[in-house]
Amino acid sequence: MQLSVSYNEEKKGVEARFDDKPSDQLTDLLGKMGFKYSYRQTMWYAGDTHQRRAFLDGLKVNLEQDGDLENIIINPAYKPSLDNINDRNFSCVTITCQHDEDETIEEYLLCEPSKRIAEEIARRFADAVFGDTCKRISVHPRNRKKQARSLYEQGRIIYSSVPENHTAKEDQEANLQPEIISTQTIDLADDVPIGDDLNVQNALSVESPVAKPNAYSEVIAQQLEQPIPLIEEAPTLAKKELTDEAILEELFNMNRIDHLSRSLLKELGIQHPLDDWQIPIGKYQLTRTAVFKYTYKLTKLTTED
Predict the structure, then answer these.
(1) Closest Cα to residue 190, out of 294, 298, 117?
(2) What strands lie across the sheet with 3-8, from one edge to the other?
(3) Residue 203 lies in a domain
(4) Residue finishing a domain among 117, 152, 173
(5) pTM to 2 decimals?
């Protein structure tokens, strides 16, 4: 099977064209990497990031050689760092192994926020390191900051789907980050930030392809006409005469409103099409009522620092 790759500068996307419909295994892998297909399933597209470019480069070589998709190297989107842990750009991985009658549990930090990609990287890593002794793999949400910091300090880090892939480790340690490319028309993956048309490009982080707090609060504030009522239970907001934008920005700075959980999305009546546990808030046209309900909900929550 032949693969050609092109980049759509106007839409800030990447397109992968196959000369035939991909196999079910390849279709599943493309879906995990955030690609969607066209009508005939021979053209796949997604937002353009370094992670996807590297994946397609490896896939192209793979298809020209043995075609064994298990040999494709998949690297996480972020380098291991305390900043990325604080920004929740990580997953915690638990690998359970069986040795005769003894069961061992191995825990790792993986700086990949997408659940589906993290699961795929962890599975390939576990197969390579533990082989048939691996019985279960669990990828946990991004709220385990304390555990993530401990794993980081211990050096228990998954750098790549291939354990001996030193290039990935060196790249990450050299602070080479996924390219930050914004898109308005392609809204498919976790690492695609808000588009330039919303005038937030200057607020995007060089280290992480997620909009800075003031960017999201600016976007949401554009849709709010009246100030959100103050919430007495929120100690940092109580007795402050703040505008909608200021309240949202304060919540962002508190690391309380950077992502919406699935349960909160459901509570706010927002439909979520992606199979992941956390979704960037900037992708949704939140109403004033929804934002107020969410800020009220946040005052009842506690976060792990």
Answers:
(1) 117
(2) 3-8, 13-18, 43-47, 36-37
(3) no
(4) 173
(5) 0.56
